[in-house]
Each structure stands twice: as C-alpha cells, then as structure tokens.
C-alpha cells in the first residue's frame, strides 16, 4: 500500500513537469513583454528594456523555463507582475473562498444527488425515476452562468434575499454553491441510478433478500457500498476540478477566489501568477485522484488486494 | 466464383449493417425523450441553415439606440438589447455561430483524437505510453483554464475559440477511442482477420472503427452540447466571439450589466443555449440506451 | 416413507409467468407437489424447465418487475406463503426456509467479510437474543461445520475458491437451522471433485440438523445418491414423480424421463454414442397444445397433440402421459 502511494507520487512529477511546460510555452507565445504589464504604457522603451533584462526575459525560452522550475523546487514561485506580491501568498489568500465554494457545492450535490439516484434505481420506471432522469438531463443543459444570473435577478434584484456579489458571509455562498453544484448533481443522479441498477441485479443482493433482510437494509448495507466507487469518483473528481477555481461562477458572483485571480492573471499575462496557479491546481488535482484511489481500497477489498500485489 | 462469393459477403455485410442501424432506430424511436431531443435539434439546425431567409443579418447587427433595452413587443418579439438590436434576430443568426462551433469543434477533435487514440491503442508499447502521458498532462489541466490560456495566446475570435475548445476535447476522444480499441483489439475476430492476412489499416478501418462507433457517437453527441456550453462560458468571461457577431453566449453576456433593468436580454439567449444543449443531451442519452440494449431490461 | 410425518410444504396448482413489454413467458404451469418433514425432494429437468422459478416462488424472490405468480397456493406448515405480508416473509426467509444459489462466485457480497455475512443472518433472526459475542461464536461454529477454519472469517469472498465460497453459502443457509433448505443447482458451477465434497457435506449436515431439502439439479447421479423423492419437470410442468426407487428402478416411465436416462453414459451398456433427446425445449412464450413434450416425443400419438395428459398413479409413482392411461383405468 505505501509502495503504491509512493509510486503514484513519483509518477506525478513527470506529469507536473509536462503541465508546467505546456503552460509556460503557451504564456510565452502571448504578445507583450513583462515590462509592458508591470510599467504600463507610460514608461519609456529604454526603461522597459532594462526591466525585461533584469527579469531575464531576453534569455532563451528553455533557459527561462529551467530557471523557473529550479526556483519552484526551492519553494519560490516568484512574484506577481501585477501586484508585486509573492505568488504563493496571493494564491493562498484566495484559496479559502474557492475551497469553501467547492466544499459547499459538493455537499449539496451529494446530499441531493445520491439519495435521488438511489430512489430512481429502487423504483425503476416509476414517476420519481422518469421525472428525475429528465430533470437531470435538463439540469446538465443549463449554462451555469445563466443559472447564476437568473438567481441574481430573482433572489437579489427582485426579492432582496441574498447578496449577489462578494464572498464574505455564508449567505454569499448560497447561490454560487447552487450554481456550481448543478452539473455534478445531475451527473451524480444519473450515475448513482445506473450503478445501483446494475448492483441490485447481482446475485448477492438476492442472497441478502433470501436471508430475510428488509429492502432498506439490503439497499444500504449490501447495494450501496458496492455502488460506491463510481459515486465517490464523480464527487472527488468534480471537487478536484472545483478546487482549481470555478472560473465562471466566481466571475458571475464577483468572488475573490482562485478562479477569478487566474482569469485576471491570464488576461494580464502575469506569467508567475498563472504558472503558480496552474501548478498548484494540478498538484491538488493529482492529490485528490490519489486520495480517491486510496479510498477505493477501503470501499472495495478487491482493489486493496490489487494494490498490495503492486499493480496500478 | 471467388468474386461472386466475395460480393455476396459484401452484400450480406451491408444488409446486416443496415438492419443493425434499423434496429437502433427502432429502439431510439421508442424513447420519447430522444425523439423530443431530435425534433428540437432538427428545428434548431433548420433555423441555423435558413437564418438569412428568416431575417436579414443586418437586422441582427444594426444599432438603433432610440429603441434600446426594450422588453418584448409586437415589433421586437424578444425585445432589444443595449444597442437597440432585435434580440430574436440576433438569436436566430447566433444559432449559426453557436451550433457550428459545437459541431465543427467536436468533429475535428473526434478526427484528431480518434486518430491518435486508435494508433496508440492499436500499436501499444512505447508509443502508447508516450501518447498517454501527454494526454494525462492535457487532462489534468482543467479544460476551462486550458481554453482561457489558448484564447489568450491566439486572441479572441470565433476560429480561435474553436481551436481552444477542440484542444481540450481531443484528449477526451483520444481516451475513449483508445480504450474501446484496446478491448476490441484482443478479441477473437480481430485475431481471425489478422490470421487470414488482412492488412493493419484495413483491420482498423473495416473491423475496429465500425465496432467502436456506438460509444463514440454517444460521446460525440453529448460533447457537442458541452462544447456549446464551454464556448458560451468563454464568451461570458470575455474571451469568446467578438461583438457585434451574435453568438448566444456573447448576446447573453452583453445583457449582464442590465439584469436590473432589462433581464430579458439575459433570459432569451440562455433559453436558446439550454434548448440546444438539452436537445443534444436528450438525443445522446436515447442513443446510448438504443445502442446498448443491456441497460434496458 | 412413513406417512405419520407432518407435511411441511405443499404446493397447489402454482402458475408463474414472466411478463415483459414484448412477451409473456410461461415459466411454471400449474404444478402441485408436497413434501414431508425430513424429506429430500429432487427437482430434475433441463435448463428452463421452471425449476429455479419454482424455488424462487417459494421464497417470493421472483424479479419484482417481471415475475408474477398468477394462481396457486404455497402452504408452508399450513400457512399460505403467497398471502404473507412483508414482515412475515422476512421472518420466513433465512430462518425457516433458506436457499443456496447456483453460482457461489456471485452469491456472496464482495465488500463484506464472510464472517459478517454469516453473522448477518443470525442478527436478523435473533430470537434467542444472543449477544454479539455469542453470535461470533456461532459464526465460528458454522465455519467449522462446513470445514473452514474459523480464523478465515475476516477474509473477503475474493480470497476463497469456488468450492470454499459455496461452503460459506451453505453456512449462511444453515446458520439458523431452517426447516427447509432449497438448493438450486448447488454444485453446477464447481469442479467435479469439489462437487462430491460439497454434496457429501450437505447430506451430512442435513441429517445432522434434520432439515428438509429441495434439491434442484439436472444431475441424475446426485439425485440417486441423496434424494428420497423425485419430481421431473418439463416446460413448467411436473411430468413424472415418485420415490427414488420408482424413478430409478421401475419399468414404466414418461418418454422424457427415458430420454433423460438415455442421455447419460452407462458403464454396463456398450454404446458408441449417447442418445440425446431430439429437438429443443419448446419456446416458453408459445407452448404447444396438448402434451408439452409431444413435438419431441418418439412415442407421440394423435391424442398427445390435442389433450393435456392426466396424471396416472401407480402407488407412489405418478406419470403424466397418455401412454399409461389405460393402466390407470383398469
């Protein structure tokens, strides 16, 4: 098990190098130099050239990339061109907002999605089932920013119930969390339903009924754990994506999260900020994936046996 | 004699394929949801194709500041935007842009991703490993961020938007095609075909591709919907189609500032996006059931 | 068989169908039989003859959406199982009647330890209010009884071989000392050597615990070895029944039974080829009129195609065939 985890962590390194290279390369292709961003239009060409020189901008691409990576390994993500603050500090000041948003949306999606999915499977072809299936399909089709705007129109503009902008209090998170959870909720309903349908047709479910177990017990104790892997995968992967900043939702509700920060940084060609952000997102995403794989082993003993054998 | 037998076999194959398609269609027809999706989709495609006949493009971009921000009326069925342009006309012409972004981006990423995935899956070994590591890299960058990066590099605009979306979907199709090829590659009938001396490309073209079509078609249908959503999202954060081109996401975004006074500008293009994506999801879902009778008991 | 023993199970005119949008499958068509306490009944027939459906009907475990019991009675200790409510059924299943399924590979829950799976049935029917500790002891005892070391109760099903899994399934089935055990082809999925072990063990435990058993199988050898009575099913009907002597020693048989015996190799008979029964089971969505076996029957007469054959009795032996009608009327 430990061997497996170590192996997985080592495998993350080439992927992270690849990601950083791709993003560094892309950012390098964008027009404009760092000095244009830092000094603005008013500075003289001479001053800009000097600044670019001191930032190492004139060196060849590969050398700059290697230097950046070496610095990162020393824990130095550089300073933002725009704010002049260390990248790491700025990113982590934004992180709590993003984390809370991701957490609330996933809790919301799971609390509704999993029970509804189970109900659909248990009562296949019933009214609940067809209604939820269609509802899920419609819900995936709604553009999240549109849903967000509509909620602002209704709850903020018309009813004055909820704040439409910012991320200070819990109330600020209600509408964003609903907006963010939409797609996950819909996927979760569908996935829970189809997995549960498959599981409840298995022989061991019949065995459980033959033992005299109640329907509720069979569903909770025998079926659910067997259906858990796809369900936690969806919740986990979406949580991972959301930790990278829900760019659009944060934009709609003007939240000071990682997504909004990155969007601004990309627009301003704030290379250290973008690089730092993307790397941290990728690391978190990989860690979440690893945690998921470890979690599988606890849910399903067969997976654990596989890890012990050393297979990936 | 040989040729006759060969021809018969071809005919038989063609007939079998046709009857298989018919069977899928028969099952698809039974799903009301899929038919609703299909009807809405055909309707939207119809609007996109005949947009010029329905309303002149100039109406969609002509500014009329006297009549700006008007609600729905007899003259402007869906009202006007902040420049006094007719929203209905903009949505009608926007359907061309939004639908073609969806279809073209998916078709290109299907071809590129499918080619990479099938070659990697078929040959396996080192090539497969290198390709898959690269795909891993692409997949661990959230697609929205990837799109934003690409658009920033290339500059905003419809074709650049399409490139950005295509890049993020290449990986998806590559993975799907590769995994279905891996399962089919080792099956007995491929072995049999190889044993009788059928060439590699013929095997890929005649045996593997037809057998992987089902899941790929489903994924493609569903992807068109999500591409339309991504494109609209990019327009929303200001990296999509440039004004005055009427893309659905762009029309919606222009109304963002006026949600207090003129919420209809946001409402109607959103409905259009939702309808288009919904129709594709309905259809894709029905196709999945029709192609996989196991799921329905 | 002494007649003074109590009747345990009595099935009257049971009729089960599977209904889907496309078709109706007539799985069991009006069968009746009864069995006494301590008796072992062999239910023999080809795949699709309705054996498993009959077994599942007794526990009311038919697929909810499709399987329907159209008419009939299943009396267990005089009570009709078909009239029972959910609660009564739960008390019945696992405690009074338990079942061993065909495929041990899939009948155990892969995410629970075997110990927990045995303990569950004890917890569900804990009339004696055993403590958790006592239940654990009973689990150990059951495992030892089926020949598995009790230390292995913390293992998961995937760590056991097929034969060992079937032993666990048997331990679950017998944990509450049920009055009736239904074994649905308990050895079909196992290796031949393991089959013998499992059958021996079941036979031993059955007599030890004084359990009645319905053994569903298509293996006539097993039937001869451990059954008291035999019922032969074809296309959802019982076409011949009797004691194991009636079936294996008597001269007169239903042509289908003769066919069944003809299709097993015999050591004392020098034949080059086995004699399979010609043709296939009739399509259960469109059963033939008259005798269901008539299309495949080598001794088919005109009347067989029109009229359902009556049951002809001779002592304990009963055959549903027009051939034996005259004997009966004499």
Question: Which secondary structure elements does this structure contain, and how are they paired or packed?
Answer:
The complex is a heterotrimer of chains A (312), B (297) and C (330).
Chain A: H1 2-29, H2 34-39, H3 45-54, H4 61-73, H5 87-122, H6 127-141, H7 144-158, H8 170-200, H9 203-210, H10 215-243, H11 247-252, H12 258-268, H13 271-299, H14 301-309
Chain B: H1 2-30, H2 32-49, H3 51-54, H4 57-61, H5 87-123, H6 125-140, H7 143-154, H8 158-185, H9 188-195, H10 200-236, H11 248-254, H12 264-291
Chain C: E1 7-19, E2 24-36, E3 40-44, H1 51-58, E4 67-76, E5 79-80, H2 86-92, E6 97-100, H3 104-107, H4 114-124, H5 132-145, H6 162-174, E7 180-184, H7 192-209, E8 212-217, H8 220-226, E9 229-234, E10 237-243, H9 244-249, H10 255-262, E11 311-314, E12 317-320, H11 325-329
Parallel strand pairs in C: 3-8, 3-9, 6-7, 7-8
Antiparallel strand pairs in C: 1-2, 1-4, 4-5, 9-10, 10-12, 11-12
Structure write-up:
The complex is a heterotrimer of chains A (312), B (297) and C (330). With 312 residues, chain A is mainly alpha-helical. Helices cover 79% and strands 0% of the residues of chain A. Chain A folds into 2 domains: 2-73, no CATH class; 92-309, MetI-like fold. Chain A has helices spanning 2-29, 34-39, 45-54, 61-73, 87-122, 127-141, 144-158, 170-200, 203-210, 215-243, 247-252, 258-268, 271-299, 301-309. Chain A starts with a helix and ends with a helix. The model of chain A has no long low-confidence stretch (mean pLDDT 86). Chain B is mostly helical and 297 residues long. Chain B is built from 12 helices and no strands. In chain B, helix 1 packs across helix 12 (264-291), helix 5 packs antiparallel against helix 10 (200-236) and helix 5 (87-123) runs parallel beside helix 12. The longest helix of chain B has 37 residues, at 87-123. Mean pLDDT of chain B is 81; it is low at 1-10. By secondary structure, chain C is an alpha/beta fold. Chain C is built from 11 helices and 12 strands. Chain C has helices at 51-58, 86-92, 104-107, 114-124, 132-145, 162-174, 192-209, 220-226, 244-249, 255-262, 325-329, and strands at residues 7-19, 24-36, 40-44, 67-76, 79-80, 97-100, 180-184, 212-217, 229-234, 237-243, 311-314, 317-320. In chain C, strands 6-7-8-3-9-10-12-11 form an 8-stranded mixed beta sheet, with helices on both faces. Chain C has a 4-stranded antiparallel beta sheet with strand order 2-1-4-5, covered by helices on one side. Chain C is globular. The chains are: A mainly alpha (312), B mainly alpha (297), C alpha/beta (330). Chains A and B meet through helix 1, helix 6, helix 7, helix 11 and helix 12 of A and helix 6, helix 7, helix 10 and helix 12 of B.
């Amino acid at each position: 098990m430990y061997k497996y985890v170590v192996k997985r962590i080592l495998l993350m390194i080439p992927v992270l190098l690849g990601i950083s290279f791709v993003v560094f390369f892309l950012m390098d292709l964008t027009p404009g130099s760092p000095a244009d961003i830092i000094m603005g239009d008013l500075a003289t060409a001479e001053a800009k050239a000097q600044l670019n020189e001191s930032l190492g901008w004139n060196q060849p691409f590969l050398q700059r990339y290697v230097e950046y990576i070496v610095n990162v390994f020393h824990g130095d993500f550089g300073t933002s061109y725009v704010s002049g603050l260390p990248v790491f500090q700025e990113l982590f000041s934004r992180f709590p907002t993003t984390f809370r948003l991701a957490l609330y949306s996933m809790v919301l999606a799971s609390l509704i999605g999993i029970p509804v999915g189970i109900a659909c499977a248990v009562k296949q072809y019933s009214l609940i089932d067809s209604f939820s299936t269609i509802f899920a399909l419609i819900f995936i089709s709604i553009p999240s920013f549109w849903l967000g705007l509509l909620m602002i129109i209704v709850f903020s503009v018309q009813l004055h119930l909820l704040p439409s902008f910012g991320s200070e209090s819990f109330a600020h998170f209600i509408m964003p969390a609903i907006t963010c959870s939409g797609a996950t909720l819909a996927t979760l309903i569908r996935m829970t339903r189809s997995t549960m349908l498959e599981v409840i047709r298995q022989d061991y479910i019949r065995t459980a009924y033959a033992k005299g177990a109640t329907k509720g017990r069979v569903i909770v104790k025998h079926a659910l754990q067997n259906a858990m892997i796809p369900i936690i995968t969806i919740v986990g992967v979406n949580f991972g994506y959301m930790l990278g900043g829900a760019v659009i939702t944060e934009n709609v509700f003007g939240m000071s999260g990682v997504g909004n920060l990155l969007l601004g940084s990309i627009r301003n060609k704030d290379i250290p900020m973008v690089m730092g952000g993307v790397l941290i997102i990728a690391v978190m995403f990989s860690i979440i994936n690893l945690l998921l794989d470890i979690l599988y082993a606890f849910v399903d003993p067969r997976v654990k046996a596989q890890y012990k054998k050393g297979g990936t | 004699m040989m040729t006759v037998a060969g021809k018969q076999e071809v005919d038989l194959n063609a007939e079998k394929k046709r009857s298989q398609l018919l069977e899928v269609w028969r099952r698809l027809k039974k799903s009301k949801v899929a038919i609703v999706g299909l009807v809405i989709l055909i309707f939207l495609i119809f609007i996109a194709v005949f947009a010029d006949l329905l309303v002149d493009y100039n109406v969609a971009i002509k500014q009329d500041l006297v009549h700006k921000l008007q609600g729905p009326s007899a003259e402007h069925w869906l009202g006007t935007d902040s420049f006094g342009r007719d929203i209905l006309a903009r949505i009608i012409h926007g359907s061309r842009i939004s639908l073609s972004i969806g279809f073209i981006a998916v078709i290109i990423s299907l071809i590129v991703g499918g080619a990479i995935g099938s070659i990697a899956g078929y040959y396996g070994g080192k090539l497969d490993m290198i390709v898959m590591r690269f795909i891993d890299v692409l997949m661990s960058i959230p697609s929205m961020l990837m799109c934003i990066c690409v658009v920033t590099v290339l500059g905003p605009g419809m074709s650049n938007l399409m490139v950005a979306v295509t890049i993020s979907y290449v990986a998806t199709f590559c993975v799907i095609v590769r995994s279905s090829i891996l399962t089919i590659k080792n099956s007995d009938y491929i072995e049999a075909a190889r044993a009788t001396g059928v060439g590699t490309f013929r095997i890929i073209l005649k045996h593997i591709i037809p057998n992987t079509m089902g899941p790929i078609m489903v994924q493609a249908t569903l992807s068109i919907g999500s591409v339309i959503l991504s494109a609209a999202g990019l327009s929303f954060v200001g990296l999509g189609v440039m004004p005055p081109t009427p893309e659905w996401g762009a029309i919606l975004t222009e109304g963002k500032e006026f949600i207090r006074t003129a919420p209809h500008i946001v409402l109607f293009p959103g409905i259009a996006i939702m309808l288009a994506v919904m129709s594709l999801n309905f259809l894709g879902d029905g196709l999945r059931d029709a192609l996989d009778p196991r799921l329905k008991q | 068989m002494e007649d003074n023993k109590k009747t345990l199970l009595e099935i009257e005119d049971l009729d089960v169908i599977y209904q889907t949008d496309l078709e109706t499958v007539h799985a069991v068509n009006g069968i009746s039989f009864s069995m006494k306490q301590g008796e072992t009944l062999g239910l023999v027939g080809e795949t699709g003859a309705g054996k498993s459906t009959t077994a599942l009907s007794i526990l009311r475990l038919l697929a909810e959406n499709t399987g329907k019991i159209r008419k009939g009675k299943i009396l267990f200790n005089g009570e009709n199982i078909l009239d029972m409510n959910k609660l009564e059924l739960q008390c019945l299943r696992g405690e009074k009647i338990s079942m061993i399924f065909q495929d041990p590979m899939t009948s155990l829950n892969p995410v629970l330890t075997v110990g927990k799976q045995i303990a569950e049935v004890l917890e569900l029917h804990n009339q004696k209010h055993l403590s958790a500790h006592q239940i654990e002891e009973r689990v150990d005892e059951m495992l030892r009884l089926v020949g598995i070391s009790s230390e292995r109760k913390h293992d998961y099903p995937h760590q056991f071989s097929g034969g060992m899994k079937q032993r666990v399934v048997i331990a679950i089935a017998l944990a509450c000392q049920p009055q009736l055990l239904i074994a649905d082809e308990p050895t079909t999925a196992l290796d031949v050597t393991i089959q013998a072990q499992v059958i021996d063990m079941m036979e031993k435990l059955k007599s030890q615990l004084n359990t009645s058993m319905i053994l569903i199988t298509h293996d006539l050898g097993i039937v001869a070895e451990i059954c008291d009575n035999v019922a032969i099913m074809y296309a959802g009907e019982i076409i011949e029944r009797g004691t194991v002597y009636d079936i294996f020693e008597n001269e007169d048989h239903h042509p289908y039974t003769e066919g069944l015996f003809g299709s097993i190799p015999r050591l004392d008979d020098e034949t080059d080829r086995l004699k399979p029964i010609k043709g296939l089971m009739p399509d259960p969505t469109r059963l033939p009129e008259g005798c269901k076996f008539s299309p495949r029957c080598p001794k088919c007469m005109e009347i067989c195609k029109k009229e359902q054959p009556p049951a002809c009795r001779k002592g304990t032996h009963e055959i549903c065939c027009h051939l034996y009608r005259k004997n009966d009327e004499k």
